[in-house]
Design a protein that fits this description.
Blueprint: E1 12-14, E2 17-24, E3 27-32, H1 38-69, H2 73-83, E4 96-97, E5 100-101, H3 106-125, H4 136-154, H5 162-203
Antiparallel strand pairs: 1-2, 2-3, 4-5
Helix pairs in contact: 1-2, 1-3, 1-5, 3-5, 4-5
Length: 211
């Protein structure tokens, strides 16, 4: 590589790291900038938080009837109340455990379980660095079985079961992860770039100069 003006070698870029070599009369001094972008770690943290929240919700759904059965009625009531805002909680359409219904219906249980499982294994199927989503037709196709299962019962053609409601909900919940997670990762990366730029620049080493 040909030196530029003043004996300086142009800045080189290797992946995400940057190295500048400056040739002076006193020798050659290497100056490195800070490490990998914060967005990579933010993506991992975002995935971990999302998966943890999803698993916690599933634990609450299954735990509600157990709390009810073991004498923790007030705690169970709080869980039931919280989920009542997002689910009808009809007993006949809900799974039961220890003589008490889950905190949500069987279809919603499938949605939450499907989302949680897919969120946990997400890094194995999709890179956390990617912020693009699959084509929307896959999300639409994942919703088709649920719509069919609901419509046939609504119009009296056939009566769905706990299993069909759970499976169709789980399918949609699992596929939805691949549309939700990239968006959350993109938001976290944008947050890192916006609020992490100033500290990174402030901590960037300056070229060494002999006294």
């Amino acid at each position: 590589m040909t030196p530029g003006r003043g004996g300086e070698i142009p800045e080189l870029k290797f992946g995400v790291a940057r190295v500048s070599d400056v040739v002076t009369a006193n020798g050659r001094h290497s100056v490195s900038s800070s490490g990998p972008p914060a967005s990579a770690s933010y993506a991992t943290v975002t995935w971990a938080i999302t998966a943890t929240i999803a698993l916690t919700l599933v634990a609450m759904i299954i735990g509600a009837p157990l709390f009810q059965a073991t004498g923790h009625a007030s705690f169970a009531s709080t869980i039931y109340k919280a989920f009542s805002f997002v689910c009808h909680q009809i007993p006949e359409r809900s799974f039961h455990l220890a003589g008490h219904q889950f905190a949500v219906c069987s279809r919603c249980t499938g949605l939450y379980v499907g989302f949680a499982v897919a969120a946990v294994v997400y890094p194995l199927a999709y890179s956390l660095k990617r912020i693009d989503t699959p084509r929307r037709r896959w999300l639409i196709l994942a919703a088709v079985p649920l719509l069919i299962d609901f419509s046939l019962t609504y119009f009296g053609i056939w009566s769905n079961t706990h299993l069909t409601r759970f499976l169709t909900g789980a399918l949609l919940g699992a596929v939805a992860v691949f549309y939700v997670m990239p968006g959350l990762v993109e938001l976290s990366s944008a947050f890192a770039r916006r609020f992490g730029r100033e500290p990174l620049e402030a901590n960037t080493p300056r070229p060494y100069r002999d006294p």
